[in-house]
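haha ok so turns out i had the wrong file open the whole time. this is the CORRECT one, sorry everyone. sequence first:
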Amino acid sequence: MVKLKRIYDAPAPDDGRRVLVDRLWPRGIAKNEARLDDWLKEIAPSDALRKWFGHDPAKWEEFRERYRSELRSRQEQLAELRTAANRGAVTLLYAAKDAEHNNAVVLKELLD
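then structure:
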């Protein structure tokens, strides 16, 4: 089971494995308070794609396609997340304010 959550939301017992899927560390969060199990920077969108998208909902469909294309070269990390999700809950953590238009949403679609 794969869930999504902003890293700024309080951890919960049912989060399971907590995985940050952003390339940049979120502002205002101390590393010792994040309660992460993993930080998979390499599975996040490239800097160029992240900057191009800029969390603009008008670019969402194109972002999804481009990010899925980038993820084709990251099969090892995707397999790791799938395996973890088959064992129990995995919560993909992201920093974006927009809960519907961010890279964690695309990852969840692929993993489900």
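The radius of gyration is 13 Å.
again sry for the mixup
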